[in-house]
Amino acid sequence: MIDEILANWPLQQWNNSRVIIAVSGGADSMALLDSLWKLSSKKENLFVFHCDHRQRGEESDADASFVQEQSNLRELNCCVAQLTDEECLHHSEDELRKIRYHYLREFACRINASWIALGHNADDNIETYLHRLIRGSGTRGLRGIPITRNFIRSTTHDVMLIRPLLTVYRSSILSWLQSHDIPYRNDSSNRDSKYTRNKIRNELIPVLDFLAGPDWKERIVRLIDSNTLEHERINSRAEKLLASAIWNKQPDGSVEMIVSDLTAVDWPALREFFVGVWHLQNWPLREMSKRHWRHIEEMLNRTSSNPHPMRVDLPGHLRLEIRRGKLRIVPSSLRQSTS
Fold first, then answer.
1. Which of 56, 81, 201, 222 has the highest Cβ tally under 10 A?
2. CA–CA dist 241, 261 (Å, integer)
3. Is the pTM value of this prediction over 0.70?
């Protein structure tokens, strides 16, 4: 396991930087905590972060106390973020993740950290792939979980997310914890199959273990790797489009493009290009569903046979219009001011 961690995250990349280790108290995060603590020669640069979601009463309190105790044993600074009464009313995985990442950002900025280490493993990657496959995700979603990604970008410094255990299977992690006598906590909510991810883990995975043969996980991992390479190719094309004159930001905040330039690009790259535009304009991307993207694709496909103006209202009070050979994306405030 240590070899896998070092292959994914060489010591020279992080040993001299401040690193936050996100620790829930579960098996994965405890393996990550102990292994990074043993690897680091500058333990003063390691910080532990735990988020108490306050979803499981005394069990949540015990998790927080356990993480604090394990940090103290290793003489590491530990930050426990506790959700407010209002925040703990949120119950969906996505809402809780947003809140948790908000507190992580605050802590990272406060201590000037460069890295945040998360405990996702190879089984998490496979479960994520299956979850997105069931939802009908495209190449972007089916590339799995990235080992690294930018978490905070600023003029002073960047903070990166890193998942050093992403190529390690859960069975290997549990064996490693047992052989090194490392304690960990079990989250009772992981047994609740009302969550889709838990249903995949508790019900679908055992069926695949029985039906698909002993090496089915390795085959999925190879497929994830293949999808990742394809996404990188598409993303490279999209980045070139973003850096080109194919789109123009107007002084009033709208965006204009020439339709013939867009229809010359294959849709997967064009969709990633649009995602980049949304990011650069700080428009709400998460609310853009498959239906919205499909509508835009169909509008562009119809331009060759339909010369009439077309438009669609999009999340975030945006309107996309195609008229006289131009595609224009306009915020609602502009539409009101010009009406």
1. 201
2. 10
3. yes
